[in-house]
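Same chain as my last thread, 86 residues:
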Amino acid sequence: MSELMRLHPGDLKLADELKDISARKTLSEGGYEALSDGSGSYRDILKDKSKAEALEQESRQVKKRGRGAAANRQTGGGSGGSSQTT
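reply #2:
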């Protein structure tokens, strides 16, 4: 494909067609078509599924900790009431 562009550098229609061909190839080879028709999941197209799952679990844990800290701040968080020191 790059050979065609080298031979016809000013051909914008050719450039558009080559981009379309490349995009269709990526969609078909990468499994993205299953996403568009609803039969697949984003997890199906991940290169490293185990790493993605670990990151997702870690994200959930961080969110849980964040919600707990926010709840503690709203309720006083066991700080004994006043935050002033003498």
